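Thread: gamma-glutamyl-gamma-aminobutyrate hydrolase, structure

OP (GT): Posting the sequence first so everyone is looking at the same thing. Length is 253 residues per the record. Can we get the C-alpha cells written out before standup tomorrow? I want them in the notebook alongside the other entries.
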Amino acid sequence: MSAPVVLVSCDVKELDGYAWHAAPSTYLEALVQGAGALPLLLPSMGPAIDLDAVLDRVDGVLLTGSRSNVHPTLYGAEAHEKDGPFDSRRDTTTLPLIRRAVARAMPVFAICRGLQELNVALGGTLVSEVQDMDGRRDHRAPEADSQDARFALAHHVEIVPGGKLAAVLGDARIDVNSLHRQAIGRLAPGLTVEATADDGTIEAVSIDGAAGFALATQWHPEYWVGSDAASSRLFAAFGAALREVRGARQAAE
C-alpha cells in the first residue's frame, strides 16, 4: 500500500515582494517520521481552490499552528490590533476546509491555531490574551533564543477518562508545551472536551461522530514527536487512521 497523503494548511507570509504559502518543517517531518504519511501543502487561496476536488485525492487533514490568530470577526467579536497578527487568506481557506473534512468524516489532526480554527468553523468562539484573564496562567511561549526552550514542556493537562484522547494516551496526566494567546471560549456544537489545563483552559477536543482519528490539541506534539512518548503515540495513531482510509480507497479502485 502506498503512503497516505495528508493535506496540510499553510500560512501566507510576505517576503521579498512575494506572498509565500508555507508550513513549518516540524509538522511535515512529524507526518513523515511519526505518521508515515506524505504531506501535501494546500495554498491559502480561499474560494479559488476547489476543496472538494482536493479532498477527493487525500486521506486526511493536518491543521498547523501559527503565529497568526483567527480573525475575531469570524466568531462575532471585535477585532483589536493587539490581538494580531491575522492571516485572512488562511482563514478563508481553512474554515471551509474543516467543514468539508468533518462532513466527510475524514481523519483530522488540528494543532494550536488548528484547534482554534476547528472550534470557530463549527460555530464556537475564542478568547484572546488568555494570560490577562483572572485565574488563567500565561500560556505564551517563553522568551528564549532556542526553539527547544520555546517548545519545552511547560505544564500538565488532565485527560478526560474514557474519551477519544484517552484511547490513544490513556487516562493520565501528561506534560505539554504552551505557545498560545488565544483559547477556546464557547465550545462549538459537535466537539467534545478531551483534556484541560489546571486553569480550566481547554487543551484538547474531539469531533463528535467521527469514525476514526479526529482530534485537536492546543499544544504542539509535532515538535517532540521523536522523543516524547505522548507526542509519538498521537502521530502514530493519526498515521494508523490514515492508512485505514488509504487501504479502503485503494480497495475500492
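GT: Both are above now. Quick notes for whoever picks this up: The domain at 5-252 is CATH 3.40.50.880 (Rossmann fold). The chain has a mean pLDDT of 92.
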